Amino acid sequence: MRTTGQYDIVLLSAWIIAMEGDTGKMRVMVTGGTGLVGKAIEKVLQDEGGAREGEEWIFLSSKDANLMDVAETRAVFQKHRPTHVIHLAAMVGGLFKNMTHNLSFWRNNLHINDNVLQTAHEFGVLKVVSCLSTCIFPDKTTYPIDETMIHSGPPHESNFGYAYAKRMIDVHNRAYFKQYGRKYTAVIPTNVFGPHDNFNIEDGHVLPGLIQKTYIAQREGTSLQVWGSGRPRRQFIYSHDLARLFVWVLREYNEVEPIILSVGEEDEVSIKEAADAVVEALEFKGEVVYDKSKADGQFKKTASNAKLRKYLPDFTFTPFHKAIKETCDWFVANYDIARK
Ligand code: NAP
Ligand code: GDP
């Protein structure tokens, strides 16, 4: 429940934000700004020479506000009065964490997304770019997957909690547009990796997990255990490339419909090829063992980047092996502070 005074503050904030929007000023608040993707956006802006004139960027962590809590969400919007939001904050994990925590992924992400989008609407935020994932697409489908297919069938059972919560962002965005004319949109990245990833072996995604496992196997002279058969296929995107695309979407992309941000279909690799790339980058000389007792998850989720290519035909992605090497080097150099 909010009091009349609190409504006045919200309305005043919405009015100020609308005025700033008219002058072209952008105050961008990035939820989940301390994670893999948030840190990459911060780096890309630094590489550009800092924020553009008229832009101010604020990167939030969960310490600034627990976005599962509506009061904390409103307080952080009140504090920063963003005109634009990049919404990254989420409960995130690899296949094995998803398999055991479907309920938490569903509930936590649903709460975070509803709080962020509704509060953005109430405060008059002009644009929100949220983050979906290609694992939310139907499991039984035709390939390549494209943006029109999000709701065309159930997702893979391993991560249905996360997938349905993420799909609902698209429902939010279309409904805010229909009912209020809001231009809230979403991007759909494939598997992301890079510096500042979560390198936890049990909870994280395949590449950071393999990087830490290889590092330990190298140090202890043991074998590298790759989980599953190594046959599933993935399109990996380097976090720095994704960050450049995120900034473009924020500044230039005006559709409510989501857009897939991915390398081409021809750049899809098997888990074995990904493991080989890590082994090469860390110069691991030991034995590599495939533990077939562990799950493979979804076999593939090959996505089309044709829509992206229509907008940005000349965008260049960092070559996979170069990006893997940079990530491994970052992990080794930052071993003490890396999330693991
Ligand atoms: P990440 O490294 O795990 O970072 C998650 C971020 O969310 C952190 O900044 C974390 O804050 C914040 N956060 C988590 N729970 C929160 C809460 N209750 N309240 C406020 N903030 C909270 O994740 P990421 O890989 O950068 O993912 C960013 C986005 O990309 C997510 O929406 C994810 O679903 C999407 N995505 C990721 C991948 C991938 O392969 N990683 C692929 C496709 C899409 P603290 O640092 O304070 O904990
Ligand atoms: P997904 O792409 O959403 O399925 O999530 P992941 O990034 O966790 O990738 C899972 C795929 O990598 C499955 O085929 C796993 O069997 C395989 N894999 C191999 N080794 C590992 C590992 O150490 N960690 C994880 N998370 N997956 C691994």
Describe the structure in brief:
The protein has 340 residues and is an alpha/beta fold. It contains eleven helices and twelve strands.
Please tell me about this protein's structure.
It is a single chain. Helix 2 crosses helix 8 and helix 5 runs parallel beside helix 6 (160-180). Helix content is 44%, strand content 14%. The chain is built from eleven helices and twelve strands. The chain has 340 residues and is an alpha/beta fold. The chain has a domain at 4-193 and 235-266: NAD(P)-binding Rossmann-like Domain (Rossmann fold). It has helices at 4-22, 36-47, 70-80, 95-100, 102-122, 160-180, 206-220, 239-252, 271-281, 306-311, 320-333; strands at 26-31, 55-59, 84-87, 127-131, 183-189, 191-193, 224-227, 233-234, 236-238, 259-261, 269-270, 288-291. The structure holds NADP nicotinamide-adenine-dinucleotide phosphate and guanosine-5'-diphosphate (GDP). NADP nicotinamide-adenine-dinucleotide phosphate is lined by residues 32-38, 61-63, 66-68, 88-92, 112, 131, 133, 189, 191-192, 198, 205. It comes from Hemibagrus wyckioides. Pathway: Nucleotide-sugar biosynthesis; GDP-L-fucose biosynthesis via de novo pathway; GDP-L-fucose from GDP-alpha-D-mannose: step 2/2.
Question: What are the main properties of this structure?
Answer:
340 residues, alpha/beta, Rossmann fold, two-stranded parallel ribbon, globular, binds NADP nicotinamide-adenine-dinucleotide phosphate, binds guanosine-5'-diphosphate
In the CATH scheme, the class of one domain would be: Alpha Beta
Structural class: alpha/beta
Q: Please give the order of strands in the largest beta sheet.
A: 2-1-3-4-5-10
CATH topology name of one domain, in short, is Rossmann fold
Percentage of residues in helical conformation: 40-55%
Low-confidence segments:
none
Beta fraction: 5-15%
User: Quick one: how many beta strands?
Assistant: 12
In N-to-C order, the SSE pattern is HEHEHEHHEHEEHEEEHEEHEHH
Number of DSSP helical runs:
11
Integer average pLDDT: 94
**Distance N terminus to C terminus?**
40 Å
